[in-house]
# Entry
Amino acid sequence: MPMPMLVELVNGWGTVPRAKAGARDRPPIAAFAERHGAADAGLTDAALERVADRLYPVFAAGGAAERARLVTELMTSCGIQPALGVAGDRIRAEWLVPHRRDAIFAAAAVALHDQLVEHEPERLGTCASTSCGDAFADASPGAHRRFCSVTCQNRERVAAFRRRRQAGTA
# Structure
């Protein structure tokens, strides 16, 4: 599962991001699946919410050790088993899941595993805005992202400016 799809899943169906944003509407499952080139495979809002709520703590975790522990628990809980497949003359890594209903959860757990192995754990996070709880995966060159979007960053900067001006220190 690509990280943009995983982040959209967590933000679109996770109870924490939705609550902090004023319980915004969930995106239509068919549009979400089409946007990411995936089949909706009979997914439901309730199933996606369960997956998102299990993934969110990885983004909100306080450090590398906690993130590693959480992702290991996610992978163990859905029974993922490493395997090898063949594509032409090449061998490639695959993952087996005992229950098809756990496929999206397993794909997300593997994506988080790969993200943490290939990048600094601090590249996963939640928005620093007081009115947003969205998760993000930082792909910027400097890896100093604190907000989920430029909109949240600007909203917080304007609010801080107004507080300083009201206090007479701007």
